């Protein structure tokens, strides 16, 4: 399944800036950045639970905001892209 993770982490303190870096790193471990604080992650149900719990362990719910959206299949029907960024198609052949 494809999920969209977005967050807003308060960076007014050094602790907040550290949280921001850790949240971004967790998201990068599960998907690709599509905007500064927005990631697309292709995960199964177990990976989604892991991602969710890792993020909840990092954020401060009194200061930060975290949203996770599940994007229904077929993606071509529900996702529209405009502008120069093009997401990596993980279902297509990837050459490293």
UniProtKB/TrEMBL annotation:
EC code(s) of this entry: 3.1.-.-
Pfam families named among the record's database cross-references: CRISPR_Cas2
Entry's Gene Ontology BP terms: defense response to virus; maintenance of CRISPR repeat elements
Coiled-coil region: none
InterPro entries xrefs: CRISPR_associated_Cas2, Virulence_VapD/CRISPR_Cas2
Cofactor dependence: Mg(2+)
Matches recorded under NCBIfam families: cas2
Identification of the protein by name: CRISPR-associated endoribonuclease Cas2
Species name: Methylococcus geothermalis
């Amino acid at each position: 399944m494809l999920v969209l993770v977005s967050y807003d982490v308060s960076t007014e303190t050094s602790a907040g800036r550290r949280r921001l870096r850790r949240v971004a790193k967790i998201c990068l471990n599960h998907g690709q950045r599509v905007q500064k604080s927005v990631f697309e992650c292709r995960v199964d149900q177990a990976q989604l639970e892991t991602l969710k719990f890792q993020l909840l362990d990092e954020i401060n719910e009194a200061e930060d905001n975290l949203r996770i959206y599940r994007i229904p299949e077929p993606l071509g029907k529900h996702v529209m892209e405009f502008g120069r960024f093009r997401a990596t198609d993980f279902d297509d052949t990837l050459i490293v």
